[in-house]
Specification:
The complex is a heterodimer of chains A (235) and B (558). With 235 residues, chain A is an alpha/beta fold. Chain A is built from eight helices and seven strands, in the order H-H-H-E-H-E-E-H-E-H-E-H-E-H-E. Chain A folds into two domains: 137 residues, 3-Layer(aba) Sandwich (Rossmann fold); 33 residues, no CATH class. Helix content of chain A is 30%, strand content 11%. In chain A, helix 3 runs antiparallel to helix 7 and helix 4 packs across helix 7. Chain B is of the alpha+beta class and 558 residues long. Chain B folds into two domains: 130 residues, 2-Layer Sandwich (Beta Polymerase, domain 2), CATH 3.30.460; 331 residues, Orthogonal Bundle (Cytochrome-c3 Hydrogenase, chain B), CATH 1.10.645.10. In chain B, helix 7 runs antiparallel to helix 14, helix 8 packs antiparallel against helix 9 and helix 9 packs antiparallel against helix 14. The radius of gyration of chain B is 23 Å and the shape is globular. The chains are: A alpha/beta (235), B alpha+beta (558). Strand 7 of chain A pairs antiparallel with strand 8 of chain B, so a sheet runs across the interface.
Chain lengths: 235, 558
């Protein structure tokens, strides 16, 4: 009988089957909601923990990453998100395009002078608590470009970094390892101290009036934000 | 190259020219050519800084040099110099260098921008990094470094240790300063530098009139990693080769390495064994497929926000290629596999396994390409987004110095693999793909068909490698431990990278490091055409046009 013809007969009862739910599930919770964790709890569906620990556990297992591509490493980062490596397996596979929705920022590439203030701004826009994974040698020290006139000698000059993943570029497996290590740290409630970094955004008017500042005085307003790179002091 | 004394100049002028063409050029330039130079790739004419526009427009209109491939600026002890590397789209082996010296005290030279639109950005870069000023340039600002930068880093007396200030200020609407006014009808929109559709850290300053793009200005330099400085401070033999991998980092490493390898091998007169050339050709084409796959995947992402299907499919195929390349070179992305005079090592053992894996990939490719055509190019929504959007007319493309799939999508039949043969390409059977559509769709199709052509090349290379006699498998020529090309030898050599013509200019100064190392990046020139393609169109078409240009910021900014 084809489905577009009206059905002529109703064989079974049309009474609401309210009584079957218990019968279907049987004792205890619904099988479909069961898990190893649930089994471990046994008969008691309650656990007692500290709220902080619970929150850290939740944070570690659901990290929203910032979609942030800078340089070569971002290609390997895309491979990490994509098929085969699939970072989503670890609850960290939803790249968010807006920093305001993200918890974790992977810095995948060389930071140069022009980009430094922008990266700082993007980092500042992320809500607390926030974590940073530095991907590749460039975020550690400037990597192969360390000697460059325009290259910031490591992302840590500008923002705090929780995990460094070395490599040029690191393999996707290495990045996954770094992300897992970060999860571990978050679950334990550890993060890098946020301290004042060598390169900060400051108002132009607050800078000491040295030769460079005086030279630029007619180009930059007093209350414009600037980042001052003291290359000679860089590591 | 030093122009030397009067008598030397005279003797150079009386040298037998390499063809009748040079006599014609001499006649065309007349008194405006004040001296001659010989570059390894091309004859050079020295002209006065005030004659640039007249000479270049004569050369373009009368002699057919319609491709300003690159502008190199450099500082000597006694002068600045700008070199305009000219070519013909019809025959890129017909090259010409126009050398424009200016004094150190007053480095002002006429701008070539009115003749070749591409000179706009090239001259801004020369001003930014070297400090040559171009008179008559419409907008001579810094391009790679922040506007508040002090000094010109590749000029002679630059002190890298000095502090620098970089501002973080709001960008101004160039058309209307305050778009919040009640009677204002344009809106200023920053796209980037952190934005998923810009393929990296590009910043596009856009002015919108309603949903129509009124003005577009790409702002680059957020990934300017001083690649030229790095190459100038490395030795020819081993220290430069790792850097090309990081220009166009979308797995196009071997294609880039070839650009350097070709330039230095021609400069130092190194003959590469044929077997190594076949390996190079195969590896380079694998890279091209990987690169085009990424272009396709991210383009689908841009055009219909497809993170789940097309993007993942292209990455699946890239993973296969990266595995193959890893077997070959030892690295997934930054191969550092080419050596001056060959490649680092032979194919991996057991060879049969490598051949089998490579052939498996090639066997599966046609089905995959058909799948892409089903998913992408046959998709009605995709076609609506792409056909007749981002139109780039062939003449405009030429004037902007566009190359690669961008210019081939506009119907210009220009591919250095065929027109200026290197490696093993001239002995293999394959075709150059061109499309007449001039739109985003044509560029995408061009890339997809190039993937199939690359597969043909790889297949033939595999056949050759399989049958190559075991005792003739030389992977490297005998190259001295230290390379010191003669002082003041200059060369400009280009190869067909994944994005287009990737050229390198090297001037040797007698040491084991280059005196000047200039990179001509295809993306840098291609990106310039963005304004031409998207002004007057809708904002989604701007995103599609940007995606179809397939830029890589590592190569744009270098």
């Amino acid at each position: 009988m084809s489905s577009d013809e009206p059905q002529q007969t109703i064989h079974d009862s049309t009474a609401p089957s309210t009584d079957t739910r218990e019968a279907r599930i049987g004792e205890g919770v619904d099988d479909r909601f069961n898990s190893r964790l649930r089994e471990a709890f046994g008969a008691s569906p309650f656990i007692l923990t500290k709220f902080d620990e619970f929150m850290n556990w939740v944070r570690g297992n659901s990290m929203f990453m910032l979609q942030f591509g800078i340089a070569c490493c971002s290609i390997e980062m895309m491979h990490t998100y994509a098929i085969k490596h699939d970072l989503d397996r670890f609850g960290a596979g939803v790249p968010r395009a807006s920093p305001r929705q993200a918890d974790v920022m992977i810095v995948p590439g060389t930071i140069v002078s022009k980009f430094g203030p922008r990266m700082k701004r993007v980092y500042d826009q992320m809500p607390e608590p926030k974590f940073v994974v530095g991907m590749g040698s460039c975020t550690i020290s400037g990597g192969p470009f360390q000697e460059g006139y325009n290259v910031v000698k490591g992302a840590e000059e500008i923002i705090p970094i929780d995990i460094h993943v070395p490599g040029c570029p690191p393999r996707p497996e290495a990045l996954i390892y770094g992300v897992l290590k970060l999860q571990e740290r978050i679950k334990n409630g550890e993060s890098s101290a946020v301290v004042v970094k060598p390169y900060e955004l400051e108002e132009f008017g607050d800078l000491p009036k040295d030769e460079l500042v005086q030279k630029l005085a007619d180009q930059i307003d007093e209350d414009d934000l600037v980042m001052r790179y003291n290359w000679a002091d860089s590591p | 190259m030093s122009t030397g004394t009067e008598s030397e100049v005279e003797s150079e002028l009386t040298q037998p020219a390499s063809g009748a063409d040079e006599a014609e050029l001499e006649a065309l330039l007349g008194d405006r050519a004040i001296a001659r130079e010989e570059h390894l790739n091309a004859p050079g004419f020295v002209i006065n800084p005030n004659d640039v526009q007249a000479v270049l427009s004569d050369l373009r209109d009368e002699a057919g040099y319609d491709h300003l491939s690159c502008v190199t600026a450099q500082q000597y002890e006694d002068r600045y110099e700008s070199i305009y590397h000219l070519k013909k789209f019809a025959d890129p082996t017909d090259e010409l260098s126009i050398v424009v010296p200016t004094t150190t005290e007053n480095p002002v030279s006429q701008s070539a921008e009115p003749v070749f639109r591409t000179a706009d950005w090239h001259e801004r870069e020369a001003y930014d990094l070297i400090g040559v000023e171009y008179e008559g340039h419409p907008d001579l600002r810094r391009i790679l470094l922040p506007e508040t930068w002090q000094g010109h880093p590749l000029s002679g007396d630059y002190d890298q240790e000095k502090p620098q200030l970089v501002t973080l200020t709001e960008h101004q609407n160039p058309i209307q300063p305050d778009h919040r006014e009640a009677d204002s009808d344009t809106m200023f929109l920053n796209i980037g530098p952190h934005h998923p559709a810009t393929h990296g850290v590009l910043h596009v300053e856009t002015v919108l009139d309603g949903e129509t793009v009124a003005d577009v200005e790409p702002d680059i330099g957020y990934l300017h990693r001083c690649e030229e400085q790095m190459c100038q401070s490395g030795t020819y033999r081993h220290q430069i080769m790792p850097y090309p991998d990081r220009w166009d980092y979308v797995s196009a490493g071997l294609l880039n390495e070839w650009a350097y390898a070709r330039a230095i091998e021609d400069l130092a007169d190194v003959e590469v064994p044929e077997y190594a050339q076949v390996i190079r050709t195969m590896g380079a084409e694998l890279c091209r497929i990987a690169s085009h796959m990424l272009a396709l995947g991210t383009f689908a992402l841009d055009v219909y926000g497809e993170f789940t299907a097309t993007f993942m499919y292209t990455f699946r195929d890239r993973e296969v290629i990266q595995d193959l390349l890893e077997d070959l070179t030892g690295q997934r992305m930054m191969f550092n596999y080419f050596r001056v005079g060959g490649v680092a090592w032979d194919l991996p053992e057991p060879r049969e396994e490598f051949f089998a894996q490579a052939r498996d990939f090639l066997d599966e490719l046609p089905a995959k390409v058909a799948e892409y055509h089903d998913l992408i190019t046959g998709n009605e929504i995709f076609q609506t987004r792409c056909i007749d959007t981002g139109v780039l007319e062939p003449d405009v493309a030429k004037s902007y110095g566009c190359t690669g799939p961008v210019v081939r999508g506009s119907g210009v039949d220009y591919d250095l693999r065929r027109d200026d043969p290197y490696g093993y390409y001239d002995q293999l059977d394959w075709d150059v793909i061109t499309r007449d559509g001039c739109d985003n769709y044509a560029r995408v199709l061009c890339r997809m068909e190039e993937v199939e052509e690359s597969a043909k090349i790889i297949e033939q290379c595999l056949d050759l490698l399989e049958e190559w006699p075991e005792d003739e498998r030389d992977v490297q020529a005998n190259v001295p431990r230290t390379l010191k090309p003669d002082a003041d030898t200059e060369i400009y050599r280009a190869v067909e990278g994944a994005k287009g013509e990737l050229g390198i200019y090297i001037r040797s100064d007698g040491t084991d490091k280059p005196g000047r190392f200039k990179i001509r990046s295809p993306c840098f020139s291609n990106l310039q055409a963005l304004a031409e393609m998207s002004e007057g169109e809708y904002i989604p078409d701007l995103i599609a046009s940007l995606g179809s240009l397939d830029i890589v910021l590592g190569e744009v900014d270098r």
